[in-house]
Amino acid sequence: MDMPETATVTSKSMVNIPARLRARYKIKPGSKIVFIEKDSEIILVPVPSIDALFGIDKDHSQALREAARELNAERRREANEK
């Protein structure tokens, strides 16, 4: 585990994300960050851009197609039962 990073909240409630973390998680100007509250912690999660997600399912495309076919068949069976 890397050493923890520290940042200071400014008078305008802004925080600079340390350069090492920005580089590691590809956070650039305009990037979106989600703040998640858990117990007494705040977790910051970078939201990938649509472009970064393109092709992410390539390794699982066959399984995704089969799951979609099964779901479609199930919905048709349910519709015919009504």
Characterization of this structure:
This protein has 82 residues and is α+β, with helices and mostly antiparallel strands. The protein has two domains: 1-47, Pemi-like Protein 1, Chain: D, CATH 2.10.260; 48-82. Helix content is 38%, strand content 17%. It has helices spanning 19-24, 50-53, 61-81; strands at residues 32-38, 41-47. Strand 1 and strand 2 form a beta hairpin. The longest helix has 21 residues, at 61-81. The chain starts with 18 loop residues before the first helix and ends with a helix.
Overview features:
82 residues; two-stranded antiparallel sheet; elongated; single chain; alpha+beta; Pemi-like Protein 1, Chain: D; 3 helices
Structure described in brief:
This protein has three helices and two strands, in the order αββαα. With about 80 residues, it is of the alpha+beta class.
Largest sheet: 2 strands, antiparallel
Task: Provide mean pLDDT, rounded.
Answer: 88
Question: Which blocks of ≥5 consecutive residues have pLDDT under 50?
Answer: none
In whole angstroms, the N-to-C terminal distance is: 56 Å
Q: Write down the Rg.
A: 21 Å
Number of helices: 3
The best one-word shape is elongated
Order of SSEs: HEEHH
Under the CATH scheme, which architecture of the largest domain would be assigned? Ribbon
By CATH, the topology of the largest domain is Pemi-like Protein 1, Chain: D
Provide the domain count. 2
The first-level CATH class name of the largest domain:
Mainly Beta
Estimated share of beta-strand residues: 15-25%
Helix content: 25-40%
User: What is the topology, as strand order, of the major beta sheet?
Assistant: 1-2
Structural class given helices, strands, pairing?
A: alpha+beta
Number of strands: 2
